[in-house]
Amino acid sequence: MIDPEEEKALLVSCSKGDRQAYALLYTRYVSPLCRYLFLFTRSKEDSEEIVQDVFVKIWEKKENLVTVQSFRPYVFKTAKNQLLDLIRRRETETKMLDYLRPVTEESSEYSDAYAIYNQYHQIAHEAKNLLPQKRKRIFEMKTEEGLSLDEIAESLSISKTVVKKQLYAATDFVREYLRKHAEMTTELVIFFYFFCSAK
Fold this sequence. Notes:
The chain is mostly helical and about 200 residues long.
């Protein structure tokens, strides 16, 4: 059993850049997190990779640790979000590759299709960077971090309605930018829109 007061002191120290406190937190939670994640991933490598990513994120935002009341739910929620992000990313990659994949992956058509996909992805990134800062952040939280509309609204302290309006406006802009600058086919526009606006 971890003493709450002791853990709170570790969080405060860690928030100030104390690497020893950070190492203690890591040592205490790495095994429980790996066991928890393995229930879903069934992969030791994936579980360990997610845990590493979790603690990298925690260290990058260590200043926020002073506001954390209990580290266990905080670190497990972070791990869950990383797990969901991994699942969504792999599902998206698989579906996109399936969409682009011709009869044989060894064919030159496959290489051409993948190159075209990369081009579209780069242009979409350019479009995203042209969005107003608030709209861009909402778009990233939805499409890259996989957060729900409710989670975005809570994180930014705005209403769900505002999140929806900003997300739809961002998606429409990026879609039109792709249509104009990449001569995107109707099928790929629909495909892109599906993944950007999926709940």
